[in-house]
Amino acid sequence: MASQTASHVMVALCLLGLAARHAAEATQLVPAVFVFGDSTVDVGNNNYLNSTKPARANYPKYGVDFSGSTPTGRFSNGYNLADQLAQLLGFPKSPPAYLSLTAKTIVPQMYQGINFASGGSGLSDKTGLLGAGEVIPMSLQVQYFSQVVELMQTLSGSRRTASLLSESIFFISTGSNDIFEYFLSGGNGDDGEFLLGFTAAFRSYVRALYRLGARKFSIVSITPLGCTPSQRARRLSQGGTRGGCFGPINTLSLRSYPMLAASLRDLADELPGMAYSLSDSFTMVSFIIANPRTNAWSFTELESGCCGSGPFGALGCDETAPLCDNRDGHLFWDANHPTQAASAIAAQTLFAGNRTFVSPINVRELAQL
Ligand SMILES: *[C@@H]1O[C@H](CO)[C@@H](O)[C@H](O)[C@H]1NC(C)=O
Ligand SMILES: *[C@@H]1O[C@H](CO)[C@@H](O)[C@H](O)[C@H]1NC(C)=O
């Protein structure tokens, strides 16, 4: 009974999303989308860096379901979360990677948005250096954005720039790599202290973007990171039984949400005109894992990555790795990243989801403010 009600709500959600998608074809809901964060939303910035292989996705079989089966640098079989949220806002896909733009192409593009995200990066400047080689940490992403704001002010004046930025969506999906690395380096620090630093860093970047003119923030919180193929494999290798999530990293993921939520509430109280939409991604993903088949979706594989060899397909996706047949039935594409199908549900939920999954408002409501 309860699950039937739930699936009806999800159908309604899905229809809402579809209706929005049709409406969006006619009009963009906001002038521009600016994207910050990690591999969940990178659309190719790392192609321009000296990053190591796991922090790049510009080789097969990445992009196998992208137009022309092109590996673009997206850590997905197709479109990622930034693409699909941008589509719901009326854009064809994510704005392009900042590093792909030239002095000439950046000028028309910046009025529609730019994607600064970099796979392997995190809130801390140190995050990514261990395994990813070169990445663009959040601090540098914000610095790049400040250069774009200066250029816009020079070309369009301060008032028009402020007006455009205040109506645009600032989409942030970061922090997972900070948590992964906290555990890689032992994870035996003080969890409370780590989380305080984590939320303080998050706050400082939101504040910095606000100072540069951002007002509408869509923020993705941490998913149950212990349930990714890489962490399931890790649990198995440490003597756990097959089928479980890695507990300690899930505990930290879960604890990060109320702290982030409180930080954003405080910031919105303090900063005039700031509005935000925060996903509860832990609850969102847990809901899918608990309800793999509804009228709105059908996942047949929740644990293993589609592209990759070894336990849970966690040993890396590349041209030689095995590929699953039913990509849309897999929650995970590779060791750490969702499939296009899973990101689609996340995007729909960010955009039109109810208060269980996104609060205090969803992105559609944020866009309409
Ligand atoms: C949101 O939707 C989910 C899934 O259908 C449901 O379980 C939950 O009760 C809903 N929450 C609210 C606040 O309506
Ligand atoms: C790229 O990184 C590798 C190892 O991290 C280093 O040996 C190499 O010199 C770097 N190449 C460039 C062009 O910076």
UniProtKB/TrEMBL annotation:
Coiled-coil annotated residue ranges, if any: none
Record's protein name: GDSL esterase/lipase
Source superkingdom: Eukaryota
Keyword terms of this UniProt record: Hydrolase, Lipid degradation, Lipid metabolism, Signal
Annotated InterPro entries: GDSL, GDSL_Est/Lipase, SGNH_hydro_sf, SGNH_plant_lipase-like
GO BP, sorted A to Z: lipid catabolic process
Pfam families according to UniProt: Lipase_GDSL
Signal sequence extent: 1-26
Annotated family: Belongs to the 'GDSL' lipolytic enzyme family.
GO molecular function: hydrolase activity, acting on ester bonds
UniProt keyword Signal, yes or no: yes
